[in-house]
Design goal:
With about 450 residues, this protein is mainly beta. Strands 19, 22, 23, 24, 25, 26, 27, 28, 29, 30 and 31 form an eleven-stranded antiparallel β-sheet that branches.
Length: about 450
C-alpha cells in the first residue's frame, strides 16, 4: 500500500445507528494506520456546532478555529460521508465548505488508506494555513435522524477519539429543538462526562473549556420524544413509570404544547401567554381536531390520563394543597408576610413575601416547573429571579449572591436557580421569597402549612 505524502485534517461525522459528530483532527496516513501528526503544530483553539432538528432530518453547522504555530503549510482537508456504511444513516446532503469566509470547491474521492475504511466517500479540499495565524473552517450539511421506540436521538462525538487526542481550547454544541418540541419532551441528555449543560425552553447547550477527549467515548447526546410519529405505547407508558420527575404541571404543558404546535388558541389566558412567548407559535384560528395526526391524538390522551391519575392536584385546581416545594434545603423564616417592621428602614410597611435566613451560598430551588421571566439586579431586591408558572402563579427570589439561570430558560421543580446572598437592601444572608397569583401577592406560608415557621426543611 502506497504511503500518502500528505497530512490530513479530518472533521469526522460518524453516523452509526444514531448520528455521531466529531471534530476536525490533524492526521496522516501510513500503511493503513491513522495517527496524530507528531509535530502538533496546528491547534484546535475553538469549535462551535449548531444542530437544528426537524421532524425528518437535521441541519448542521460546524465552525472550527485552527491556530498554526509553525511555518505556513498547505494541507489536504477531508470530511467523510458515512452514508454507505451499514446502519449508518443517510448520506450527507447539501454539503458546503468555507475557509476564512471563502467558499471552497471540493472533490469526492474514495479514501481507503486510513483506519476509517468504512467511510467510503470523502469530501476533500486543499487549505492553506499561514504561519502563526488562525484559520477558520466552516461546513454545512443535512443528515437523517435515528429512531428509538419512543424518541429520536443525536450524538455528537467530541474529538474523533483515535484521531484527535489533544485538548480543544473551548467548545459549544447547541441542539435546537424549536421546530419539533420543547425540552419538556427531552427523554435523555448526556450525564457521564465532565462538561457543562444548560437547558432552555427549546435548546440543550453543552459547553467546555480546555477539554481533552478520550478514545471515542466522549459523546453528548439529546433524545426527544417523537410524539408526531410512531410511538410504542407500551414503551412510552414504561418510560413515564420509570421517570417520576414529571409533575402534573409538566404533563399539562406537554399535552397543550402539541395543540399549540398547530396554532390552537387556548381558552386559558395563562396558556395563551405562555405559548405566545415562543417564536414558533403561530395562531391558527381555523384549527380543528382533525389537524392533529393519529399519533398526536394518542399521546394527548395518554398524557391526560397520566395527569388525571397523579395523586397530587395540579397547580390552580386546589390552592390549599402543598403543590410548591420549599425553595431552600434548610432555613428559618425571620420575617413573615404582611405588615411588618422593616429591619433596615425601621418602620412598618407591607411585606409581599417572607424572608428566610440561611447560610450564604446555599442552593435556591425552583418551587415548581416554569419559565424564567426575568433576571437582574434592583436596588431593593438585589439579584432577583422571577419565574412564571401555570395557572397565573409567579415566584420571586431576591437578595441572591449568584444567579444561575437566564431569561427564557425552562426550569423543573427543585432545579437549582441561584445561591443565597445579601445583595440589595439586606443586612445578612437570606432569601426574600414571594408567590403571586393573578397579579396579586399571596402568603407563601399557605403552601407550607404543615411545616413549622421557625425551622423549614426542604421536602427532598
Amino acid at each position: 500500500m502506497q504511503e500518502l505524502d500528505v497530512k490530513i485534517i479530518i472533521s469526522i461525522l460518524v453516523i452509526n445507528i444514531s448520528i455521531l459528530f466529531a471534530d476536525d483532527a490533524i492526521l496522516k496516513s501510513s500503511g493503513g494506520n491513522v495517527f496524530l501528526d507528531s509535530s502538533n503544530s496546528i491547534e484546535m483553539a475553538k469549535e462551535y456546532v449548531y444542530i437544528k432538528m426537524y421532524r425528518d432530518n437535521c441541519k448542521v453547522y460546524c465552525k472550527y478555529w485552527f491556530v498554526n504555530h509553525a511555518n505556513s503549510q498547505t494541507i489536504l482537508v477531508g470530511f467523510p460521508d458515512a452514508g454507505d456504511f451499514p446502519d449508518s444513516g443517510e448520506p450527507l446532503n447539501n454539503f458546503r465548505i468555507k475557509v476564512n469566509g471563502k467558499s471552497m470547491d471540493y472533490n469526492q474521492k474514495k479514501e481507503v488508506d486510513t483506519e476509517f475504511e468504512y467511510f467510503n466517500m470523502w469530501y476533500t479540499w486543499q487549505t492553506y494555513f499561514p504561519a502563526n495565524d488562525t484559520t477558520i473552517i466552516e461546513n454545512w450539511y443535512t443528515s437523517g435522524l435515528d429512531r428509538g421506540y419512543i424518541d429520536v436521538g443525536y450524538k455528537y462525538l467530541i474529538g474523533t477519539g483515535q484521531s484527535w487526542k489533544n485538548k480543544i481550547g473551548n467548545g459549544t454544541i447547541i441542539f435546537d429543538l424549536s421546530e419539533v418540541a420543547s425540552t419538556n419532551f427531552v427523554t435523555f441528555t448526556t450525564n457521564n462526562i465532565d462538561i457543562n449543560i444548560t437547558r432552555e425552553f427549546n435548546k440543550i447547550i453543552y459547553s467546555f473549556n480546555s477539554y481533552k477527549p478520550s478514545l471515542r467515548n466522549d459523546k453528548v447526546s439529546v433524545w426527544v420524544m417523537s410524539y408526531w410519529d410512531f410511538l410504542n405505547e407500551g414503551f412510552i407508558k414504561q418510560y413515564f413509570k420509570n421517570n417520576t420527575s414529571y409533575t402534573k404541571e409538566t404533563l399539562r404543558l406537554m399535552r397543550n404544547e402539541i395543540y399549540a404546535r398547530h396554532g390552537y388558541i387556548f381558552k386559558s389566558n395563562d396558556l395563551n401567554n405562555y405559548f405566545k412567548m415562543q417564536p414558533w407559535y403561530k395562531v391558527n384560528d381555523k384549527f380543528t381536531f382533525s389537524d392533529l395526526n393519529e399519533f398526536e391524538k394518542k399521546v394527548i390522551v395518554l398524557l391526560k390520563n397520566m395527569e388525571d391519575s397523579m395523586s397530587s392536584t395540579n397547580v390552580g385546581q386546589n390552592d390549599s394543597l402543598n403543590i410548591f416545594k420549599f425553595p431552600l434545603e434548610e432555613g428559618r423564616v425571620v420575617r413573615e408576610f404582611g405588615n411588618t417592621s422593616h429591619p433596615i428602614l425601621k418602620f412598618e410597611r407591607f411585606h409581599p413575601g417572607i424572608d428566610i435566613s440561611s447560610v450564604k451560598g446555599s442552593n435556591v430551588h425552583a418551587i415548581a416547573d416554569g419559565l424564567v421571566d426575568s433576571v437582574g439586579f434592583s436596588e431593593g431586591y438585589g439579584n432577583r429571579i422571577i419565574i412564571k408558572h401555570m395557572a397565573g402563579y409567579i415566584s420571586i427570589y431576591g437578595h441572591l449572591d449568584i444567579i444561575l439561570v437566564k431569561r427564557g430558560m425552562t426550569v423543573r421543580q427543585k432545579d437549582i436557580i441561584g445561591l443565597v446572598g445579601s445583595t440589595g437592601l439586606a443586612t445578612a444572608p437570606h432569601l426574600h421569597f414571594e408567590i403571586w397569583k393573578d397579579d396579586k401577592s399571596i402568603n407563601p406560608m399557605q403552601f407550607y402549612s404543615g411545616i413549622p415557621i421557625d425551622h423549614l426543611i426542604h421536602d427532598k
